[in-house]
Amino acid sequence: MILIVDDIRANIIALKKILEIQGFEVDTAESGEEALKKILKKNYSLIIMDVQMPGMDGFEAVETLAGSNRTKDIPVIFLSAVNKEKKFISKGYASGGVDYITKPVDPDLLILKVKTFLKLYDQQNELKNIRDLLSKEIEIRKEAQENLELKVTERTQELLVKNEELEFRNHELQQFAWVVSHDLKEPLRKIEIFVKMIQERYLKDDDTARDYVQRTIRSAQRMARLITDLLDYSRLSSTVVPVKTDLNEIFNEVLSDFDYVIEQKKAVITIQPMPMVTGVSSQLRQLFQNLVGNSLKFAKVGIAPVIEATVEIIEEKNFESKISQSGKFCRIVVKDNGIGFSEIYLDKIFKIFQSLNDRNSYEGTGIGLAIANKIIERHNGLITAKSSPDNGASFIIVLPL
Amino acid sequence: MRTILFVDDDQDDQLLFQEALSEADSTAVYLSATDGVDLFEKLNTGKTATPDLIFMDINMPKMNGIESLKELKRSERFKSIPVIMYSTSSSKEHQKICLESGAIGYVEKPNDFDQICARIKSILHNGLLFRQNDVPL
């Protein structure tokens, strides 16, 4: 709706007619004061304002409008018959008018101007609405983001607490395993000592009794070894930092540990030059100790063990991977000529407490390969075996360099 | 005649040690305490003569071997008594702590009576047993 403000009623009527013919809705006011009252109550999209009026003149009225947020954006066209000089026109624009027209008015031009300003006003409003909408949207997103960040922080905190708790429990569990195994070994040590004393002091002449006592001692020793192995297995859970490790040194140490057995069984062991790998040397040593130890342990009766460790640098973490000098992995094969085993047991041998062989002819607790498997897991590697009964066994390992 | 004080809560180990000691040195006097608290009670009240050497277990109730060792070394009266720690623990960490806390030796409890005798004999006969005024440590 357009508001026409003029103190001369004839002017109003003429202007109103022109606009109404064009289909505009028109309201009128006959003084600055009346105009302000109306503008307070109603929304106008354009004001055509006479400059010279008794009481509040057009400039004053528009300055008042500029002071209110609701009305400051309504476009005002000043219309004047008397004040045609430049200073009045300047004042009109300065007070907030969008145009300053002098009489006589060309109706066609006036209509065009009115249409243009109305359009501008609409567009401005539209932009304002969009801006409001956008800032509201931004507000909403900001809030969502803040909520999300809060949630993430909360979750992270929760996870940290859980993690700490788990670490604590893990530590506690290891402590527990240590204490339990220590306390379990203590009575075994006593059994061993006292039974040995009985054997030496009182059973010199009774072979059967000596044999029974010998079996008792062996059982106690076997149980002690079992507990030690279990303890080793549980210790593998603790975290250690991997470093560059020379596998040649590891193999040398392992072979010197087996010095006595190798000599006794007349074993022939050949180790190819090995690469450096990133790992925990004590664990890698245990891994190869278990593998070489197995090969020595499961030799055919009466046949000297022949054990071979070979290595290839390979492209990817895969048993079948292609050889590549620039590869990031190595494939190590520990091969023997022992009693072997049927591959149907392959998934069993790496699990804890799965000894395939008859205890009387072969020593061992069945934990060795489970330990090997866990060490390989902790080194991000792979382990498997190839074998058949009576045809020896090959243990294949893939380790990152 | 030497006085050896054995501190261990395990009665089997006490029995074994006592027998092994008399076999290693038939003139040696055997004294015992069951833990650190008992040890200091006996030493402080004079119920037990100040020994020439203490063998002490680590894992004991009330006051363990390492605490007792440190306490002995803090005491003006008893710090000159040589102490050998005697434990089933094969932990390198334990051994290090014991030696750093003032023990003159660390013996892992053997699984064999003859080994216990041999250990004690070797310690008693090969000069590991110093009295405060004999040889400076």
From TrEMBL, chain A:
The entry's keywords: Kinase, Phosphoprotein, Transferase
Q: Which GO terms describe its molecular function?
A: phosphorelay sensor kinase activity
- Organism domain of life: Bacteria
| Matching Gene3D superfamilies | 1.10.287.130, 3.40.50.2300, Histidine kinase-like ATPase, C-terminal domain (3.30.565.10)
Catalyzed reactions per annotation? ATP + protein L-histidine = ADP + protein N-phospho-L-histidine
What EC number(s) does the entry state?
Answer: 2.7.13.3
Boundaries of every Response regulatory domain copy: 1-118
- How would you classify this enzyme at the top EC level? transferase
- PROSITE patterns hit by this protein: HIS_KIN, RESPONSE_REGULATORY
The record's annotation in Pfam families points to: HATPase_c, HisKA, Response_reg
Query: Residues in domain Histidine kinase?
Result: 179-401
Positions of post-translational 4-aspartylphosphate modification: D50
Q: What is this protein called?
A: histidine kinase
From TrEMBL, chain B:
Residues bearing the modification 4-aspartylphosphate:
D57
**Pfam families, alphabetically?**
Response_reg (PF00072)
Matching entries from PROSITE patterns are given as: RESPONSE_REGULATORY (PS50110)
> Which keywords label this protein?
Phosphoprotein
Q: Which GO terms describe its biological process?
A: phosphorelay signal transduction system
InterPro entries from the xrefs? CheY-like_superfamily, Sig_transdc_resp-reg_receiver, TCS_response_regulator
Does Cell membrane count among this protein's keywords? no
Q: Where is the Response regulatory domain?
A: 3-124
Q: Which PANTHER family match?
A: RESPONSE REGULATOR RCP1 (PTHR44520:SF2), RESPONSE REGULATOR RCP1-RELATED (PTHR44520)
Name of the protein: Response regulator
What is the organism lineage in this UniProt record?
A: Bacteria, Pseudomonadati, Bacteroidota, Flavobacteriia, Flavobacteriales
